[in-house]
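dude i think i finally got it to work??
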Amino acid sequence: MMKNIFVVIFFLISTYTLKGQDVQFSQFYAASMYLNPAFTGSSEMTRVGFNFRNQWPSLDQTFVVFSSYADYFIDEKNSGVGLILNGSKESLTGFQNTEIGLLYS
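look at this
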């Protein structure tokens, strides 16, 4: 019982001190597969795209984000497959993050 209390307290304290920022595109429908992976193959043709955002460029604490994607509709299977690559960089902390994902819908 005491061990469970310490675990709960540890998680409450650690989540209170953690901070982060999620990627937000101002034209979110232009980043449809980032918005919802179920949009993969929804146009019933091959798509390739690139999104870029430089948030707060005039401040010392910039947040630069990019997202590139490609998807293909498979008519015989009535399905879509895709690939998405996301990257971000915070100038204040120097934190960089890169993600790659395979999509199926």
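Residues 28-104 form one domain.
im so relieved honestly
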